[in-house]
Amino acid sequence: MAKEIVISVKDLTKKFGSFTAVDHLTLQVRRGEIFGFLGANGAGKTTAMRMLCGLSFPTSGSGTVAGYDILRQAEEIKRHIGYMSQKFSLYENLTVWENLNLFATIYGMSAKSIREKTDAAFKTLGMENMRNVPVKEIPLGWKQKLAFTAATLHSPDVVFLDEPTGGVDPSTRRKFWEMIYRASSEGMTVFVTTHYLDEAEYCNRISIMVDGRIKALDSPEGLKRQYLAGTMDEVFRIVAKDAKRGD
Amino acid sequence: MKNAIDIQGLTKRYGKLVALDHVSLSISEGSLFGLIGPDGAGKTTLYQILTTLLSPDEGSATVMGLDVVKDYRKLRTEIGYMPEKFSLYPDLTVDENLHFFASLFGVNVKDNFDLIAPIFDQLQKFPNRRAGALSGGMKQKLALGCALIHRPKVLLLDEPTTGVDAVSRSEFWGMLATLREKGITILVSTSYMDEAERCERIALINKGRILDVDTPGRLIEGLDKNLYNASSKDMYPLLETLRTLPDVKDCYTFGATLHVVTNDDFNPDDAICKLRQEGLEDARIWPAKGNIEDLFIKLAKDDG
Asked: Is the ipTM, as predicted for this complex, more than 0.95?
């Protein structure tokens, strides 16, 4: 099962009536890679991500995610990926452990495997004493780590993170990126969107989407060289400045 | 110069939790002042007291000389407030929202048009779009427009750019600079450190207490001492190994590199040797330049 390419899509397109939300998206992401999926508000990132997650059917184009066909095996894709949205889809009234147990059960993990994985997770996170606390009572930074753990407990090939760090302070954001680094070093592929351009530097490669199309794709270093820019912030401004959509 | 905002010993408790712990702060008229702190630091509570939505347990605060408790009715007409959560009516259109807020304050949208003209220009592209259907950046601009409709003297913005892309953020800050030139005092909180650097002065707040107040430039003075960059293609093992070295006080991710905070005895060459022994053949260490993020992380750590 040494499949090196975990995400491979070609000309993926999504139209809503006459509006082309995503226009011929083509990209490949390797195993263990941290891939930053950037773009202005309204560029089509969420629509593209929904197609990659098997949540939205493309109008045209093709591709595979975690070895499964986007057009024919959407259910299999959903089983083999993790997804964390900006809204952290945790159940506020359930405890920390109940949340993890719920997600793990939905993914069909055995009771034994759930116990082992949650024990290990609580230990790594240093959250052992929060096991029985309702999620609504834990701080935002912990919720975020918990949401990531819930999305990855079933050891998916790839985890999709949609603006996981919005509104979070610098210390907490860093702790979150350490979790991403660790997951990636263990071979998990991480596909992440963010508006914090310093975070783009954490990624192995980055794409910048403008008006439904990928305008730039390379390593942060490569992009900075190509656009003669000192920071990713400058790169983003140069690439996204002519965006017609959204704002 | 007069103070637009004066805060003295402000304290607010929720049961056992002390959200604000004797906060004192003065913000001079016409300045752009940043409030920087982690989640749960007390920023939103401070905004809610300054906007008269909450009463303090102890201490006092005035905005444009008006007391937040005694003069709350008058005070509300002097301020514009953008809460953290999008607070316009999502099922009203852009125009309807502007007119609604104007009528609440008994003004005409035209009365203070000069103030919102730059924002209005951009919103004019879709006057009949419902606010709920706008993109993140556009929602923020509309919310700013609505907060300005009655020509407030003080603008209170609670994390206005969270979830907004870099280009829109930059435009938003351009607008703030223009408003400041028109004499409006702005208190803004943010989790983006590049935005903190655009403020004249900033206050660092953690666990309900103000840790420091100064210009961004003065706050980061001295941070470069004992601060290094480290990089390798294997960033996670690098991070873990550096943390085990005796003279390393802290190590955290910093974009393309790691930042390493050390004590005076740290020797980069020795450290590189040790990293190579651990199998990190390509590890490099070189001096780093500190910025507001480093300061923030340091203060958050020192403060426990």
From this structure: no
